[in-house]
Design goal:
Oligomer: single chain
Distance between the termini: 122 Å
Number of helices: 1
Order of helices and strands: HEEEEEEEEEEEEEEEEE
Strand order of the largest sheet: 1-4-7
Shape: elongated
Length: 362
């Protein structure tokens, strides 16, 4: 159709055309809803403080594994932060899943803090009470000034599950009470289990005089490691029992209990007037401090260099294992404290090769 650019239009015609256009827009608006809606004053407002005197509940009723509430941050802050003046900062309850779960690439998976209550709390019937996972930070961290740092509870599952790929799985701190409380009523399970999947230390305990002291290096292939280096009264691992075993070690072919000291005492045993300091059931082996020596026929003495130092307080016990001929026997022992050795003397020259046993007691 050709456009008429010459014929003039009257003012009345223009008004009629405008009114028709407005009527068409109104009809179109009635046929479809407007994308703009009124703001409900009870809505949760982003980027602002939302105050209420009652509980706010967000519920997912789909019945599947969808998440009811998810909080994510791209920076170094908290994905979800909860605070309480006297109750739980964050509490989670689940019938069969995880009570509280957190994940972080480089910071805390789950972190809780409280001035008088529990830092982090999670409860579940059959799942995990508290679970935190971190790539290079702390899996779960709980801090409380006067109560328990972390509390996790599960009827048949795991109370607390903390994992970190490069750092500490679980860290708990309290200034006035227990940092970590773990309890199980199951007959076949432990209250606390620590596992290292990289051939390092499963459970590390160390005592220091300052909260800013660094963590000791975790030994390789170690189930439990304890360290305390403050003074002579320090104890890396201490076990106590009234009628049982304070510390128990078991090995199939290795060493059940191994103690080492570069200048002190590797294993120390003490007892009161009615007790026994050291009791062994089975064979006893002494390496370096005991051995056998052969005195050749025609000689009257034997020089022995043991695997331990010979000092002025060393006691050397010697007994005949085979006959030296006639009535010849051990006469005496002469200690050489300068060279760390001793000489065994017979009452007479041996008429045949004989074997003697020696034992050095410091």
């Amino acid at each position: 159709m050709a456009i008429d650019t010459v014929t003039p239009r009257s003012r009345r015609a223009l008004l009629v055309a405008t009114a028709g256009g407005l009527a068409a827009l109104a009809a179109q608006a009635l046929r479809r809803p407007s994308p703009v809606r009124a703001v409900d004053p009870n809505d949760v407002v982003l980027g602002a403080t939302n105050t209420s005197s009652s509980t706010t509940t967000i519920r997912n009723t789909s019945g599947n594994s969808n998440t009811a509430l998810r909080a994510t941050t791209n920076g170094s802050g908290y994905g979800l932060y909860a605070e309480s003046n006297s109750g739980y900062g964050a509490g989670g309850l689940s019938e069969s899943g995880i009570g509280v779960s957190g994940w972080s690439t480089s910071s805390f998976g789950v972190k809780g803090w409280s001035s008088s209550g529990i830092g982090a709390f999670g409860e579940t019937t059959s799942g995990t009470g508290v679970k935190g996972t971190s790539g290079s930070g702390l899996g779960v961290s709980g801090i409380s000034v006067s109560d328990t740092g972390i509390y996790g509870y599960s009827d048949v599952g795991i109370g607390i599950d903390a994992r970190s790929a490069e750092y500490i799985g679980l860290q708990a701190r309290s200034d006035g009470n227990k940092a970590l409380l773990a309890e199980t009523t199951a007959a076949g399970h432990a209250a606390v289990a620590g596992r290292s999947s990289a051939n390092r230390t499963g459970l590390l305990g160390f005592s220091v005089g300052s909260q800013f002291a660094g963590e000791p290096a975790a030994p390789a292939k170690t189930g439990v490691y304890g360290q305390a280096t403050q003074d002579a009264n320090s104890r890396g691992v201490w076990g106590r029992a009234n009628a049982g075993r304070g510390v128990y070690g078991q090995a199939t072919s290795g060493q059940g209990v191994h103690g080492y000291a570069s200048s002190g005492t590797g294993v120390y045993a003490s007892a009161g007037s009615g007790g026994t300091a050291l009791e062994a059931s089975g064979k006893v082996k002494f390496s370096g401090s005991a051995g056998l020596a052969v005195i050749s026929s025609g000689t009257q003495s034997k020089l022995v260099t043991p695997g331990v130092d010979i000092t002025a307080s060393s006691k050397v016990l010697v007994t005949m294992q085979t006959g030296a001929g006639g009535t010849t026997t051990v006469h005496r022992v002469v200690r050489d404290t300068v060279n760390g050795r001793f000489t065994i003397h017979l009452t007479a020259a041996a008429t045949q090769d004989c074997t003697v046993a020696w034992f050095v007691i410091s």
